[in-house]
């Protein structure tokens, strides 16, 4: 129990989170993911499920592609027609670091 009259908010009384306790990444098939209702009942994480061998080697067929025997067509985008490499002559140059620690800015958000 932390005494509020002594606390200065430094966080020294709180133990650090062990490395890796929060970041626990696992690779698994979407069809084998655990439902949230099941996850809420856990006290500890279950053992990792092994991936099928064809998924690990990358030889598994992609279920999202239809079996037509043709490769999917992609639309080519020409960046030079849609974007400009430099700003127009009338554009102002960018201003950076105008509002730092010594010159703060205050904004009011409505909505």
From TrEMBL:
Residues 50-91 are annotated as: Disordered. One of its GO terms (molecular function) is iron-sulfur cluster binding. Residues 1-27 form the 4Fe-4S ferredoxin-type domain. Coiled coil: none annotated. Signal peptide: none annotated. It holds the Pfam family Fer4. The keyword Iron applies. Keywords: Iron, Iron-sulfur, Metal-binding. This is Benzoyl-CoA oxygenase subunit A. It comes from Cupriavidus basilensis OR16.
């Amino acid at each position: 129990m932390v005494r509020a009259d002594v606390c200065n908010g430094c966080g020294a009384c709180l133990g650090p989170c062990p490395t890796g306790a929060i970041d626990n990444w696992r690779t698994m098939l979407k069809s084998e993911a655990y439902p949230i209702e099941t996850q809420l009942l856990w006290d500890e994480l279950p053992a990792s499920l092994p991936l099928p061998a064809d998924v690990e080697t990358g030889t598994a067929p992609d279920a999202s592609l239809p079996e037509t025997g043709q490769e999917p067509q992609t639309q080519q985008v020409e960046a030079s027609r849609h974007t400009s490499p430099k700003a127009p002559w009338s554009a102002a140059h960018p201003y950076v670091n105008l509002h730092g620690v010594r010159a703060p800015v205050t904004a009011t958000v409505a909505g």
